[in-house]
Amino acid sequence: MIEGHGDDLYRYDELVKMNFSSNIFQHADHSALKAHLAEHLDLINNYPAPRPRRLEKLIAQKECISPEAVMVTNGSTEAIYLIAQLFHHSASIIPQPTYSEYADACRIFDHIISYENTDDLTSLPADRVYWICNPNNPSGNVLMKGFVDYVVRRSPRYTFVVDQSYEHYTREHLLLARETMGLSNLFILHSLSKTYAVPGLRLGYVTADPSLIDMLRSLRQPWTVNALAIEAGVFLLEHGQPAIPDLTAYLEETERLRQALRDIEGIRVFETKTNYMLCEISPTTAPKLKDYLIHEHGILIRDCSNFYGLSNHFFRVSAQKPEENDALVEAIRTFLDLQNASPNDNKR
Questions:
Q1: Confidence band for 275, pLDDT divided at 50, 70 and 90
Q2: HSE (CB half, 13 Å, CA atoms) of 261?
Q3: Strands of 94-176, DSSP E
Q4: Would you report the helix, strand and coil content of the chain in percent, each value rounded to 5?
Q5: pLDDT by residue (tens digit) across 233-271?
Q6: Which of 30, 81, 112, 318 could form a disulfide with 91 if both were Cys (CB 3.0 to 4.6 A apart)?
């Protein structure tokens, strides 16, 4: 696991007033969930179910598939490591830049990793695992559902891991589990943590053909999902609503933020189909910007310099409330004005 994932709130204690570093919306209403969990704290007195069948059944109903095609995991990250373990010593193709845990998991289980360089592909074994983050993190781009579906079906020899953790943060059409049952070369990763903005509970699930799910279950450690997380998942599926009740309005605000950032000289902002966006700053660096924002304005952003293939000029932000977005834009503008006033500082 790399140091410096998004939402490194724990590093800054009380300094953070506005958090743009996580891709998850920071203002979801969790009052009903908190009240429910407060009434079920006695669950901590006993071990959780080794397999949370009730939660998996609810997910299966939502996805219109068999419960045997669902496995609840400790966040989608547990599924990543289990899949890497299942295909240990394989060749893995990981297009960059993307979520770092794919490569970390593959290294632990002795995969031959290619970052999709032509020379690498010609020397790799024919049997391969392709890791696709869709929507992608940190870029926010989305591959068309038809393209992904076509590639998976036309390549039965390859295994595909399609991570759709941010599927509820885009209006683009993505793969549906019920439409891909029977494919023996596809895992789809999902994240209740992100859908309901509860990342601290570590709650995800993987959907795949039951034969693939059986193989994953045989590898997992017991009790990886705790009792309160299971109870929260059941409650959210039965009574909760996604973290973003009006996704259209939220993505319109995201585009407003993107345009405002683009208007700042020295900031390049990439296209996005989600609530987060990849930015590039010049001539100064993202670490310097992050340090300034947190200490002078209480604003936390994601320094992307530890993503493979990205330099220390890249950072990522996710849209929040309009007034917070405006504060971010003005703070970045102020930072660059200060940098321009002291050009020698940019060289250090």
A1: very high
A2: 26
A3: 112-114, 128-133, 159-163
A4: 45, 15, 40
A5: 999 999 978 889 899 999 999 999 999 999 999 999 999
A6: 112
